[in-house]
Amino acid sequence: MERIKGYVYLLCAFGLAGTSVVAASFVNGKLGTFTITSMGLLFSLVCLLPFCMGQLLRTIRALSARQWLLLFCQAMLGVLLFRMFLLYGLTRTSSVEAGILTGATPAMTVLLAVLFLREKMRAAHLLGVAGTVCGILLIQGVFMPESRFSNEHMVGNILVLGAAGCESLFNVLSRAAAVQSSGKHEAIHPVVQTTLVSAMAWLIGLVPCLAEQPLAALSGMGWQGWLALVWYGPVVTALAFICWYAGIRHCRASTAAAFSGMMPFTSLTLSVWLLHEQAGWPQWAGGLLVIAAMVLIGMDWESKLVRQTQRPAGLPKKSGT
Asked: Could you read off the pLDDT of 172-227 as tens digits, one per residue?
């Protein structure tokens, strides 16, 4: 039951995170990159602080130096750098392609989990990684000589892939922090952890935000822009991060990698539906490959869990498992 709860939390977290591409499209170009990020984080903190102030103060006093370092890295990678790469990338590529390219996150997360968390890579994981790479190459038009992107377009796609890399590092660091908390340190409540990470990211991004002189741009923004900022804050940041931190406690990084494929699926469908962007067969085919790779990674880990739970009690594990 705890594992199912973890799955539901991760599904909600990455489904909401996938809407960030569409929400950013409503304000990208009207506001600076750090202004969008800082305003979204500010709205998040306004919503979060009333619910956890007392527990937040107790947690701050109890945190170790290593926990502070992990939280700082999560704020830099999962919030600031992810959004910086994504927002700059969206100025050079389409929301459809940006959404699909975030589907590189599962494959990157699996590779990083193998390198840093010593999680084993199985055959299905390798096929999932290969499917992700082929899907990205298909989106880039590598298999179609007549299709050529401009250098600007290619740079945009590379920036989005950089955002996917930051998200993957964030996933692995979050799992490492959850494992550490289950040991000698008391686990941080998901709402408190979200508040701390958001506050760190907001403070770090405040200086470059002020350099963008945001007041004039904010005063001329319409209701759609403000609605997008509100969605980008309490929903995409606060609610999605709370679901993420609650889910990663019950699942390994490999499992979380599978669910991160919800980001490209959500982004692709919403970009076509709400933004009326066109998606040709290479985008759909590449997107399906990426999502299929995500399912393959998740099914392999699920089958492994089933085999472990069905092993009779008292029997030793086979060597190599």
From this structure: 888 777 766 555 556 788 899 899 999 999 999 999 999 998 888 888 888 888 98
Contact between residue 103 and residue 132 where contact means Cβ atoms under 8 Å apart: yes
Task: List the chain domain ranges.
Answer: 1-213+223-303
Residues 76-85 pLDDT 10s: 998 899 888 9
pLDDT digits (tens, 9 = 90+) for 219-270: 888 888 898 888 888 888 889 889 988 888 877 776 676 677 677 777 777 8
> What are the Cα distances from residue 1, in Å, to 5, 6, 125?
6, 9, 25
Contact of 43 with 223, CB cutoff 8 Å = no
- The answer to whether residues 101 and 289 touch, using CB atoms and an 8 Å cutoff, is no
State the DSSP code for 63: -
Whole-model pTM: value is: 0.73
The H-assigned helical ranges of the chain are 2-17, 20-27, 33-62, 65-74, 82-90, 95-101, 105-116, 123-139, 151-181, 190-211, 214-219, 223-230, 240-248, 253-259, 262-274, 281-310
What is the rounded CA–CA span in Å between residue 257 and residue 12? Answer: 14
**Which tokens is 279 given?**
């998606």
Task: Return the structure tokens found at 146.
Answer: 């007549």
Q: Which two tokens stand for residue 100?
A: 């699909």
Give the pair of three-digit tokens for residue 133: 């790479």
Question: Residue 72: CB partners within 8 Å, gap ≥ 6?
Answer: 200
Cα–Cα dist 197/194, whole Å? 5
**Residue 120 burial by Cβ neighbours in a 10 Å radius (0-12, 13-18, 19+):** exposed
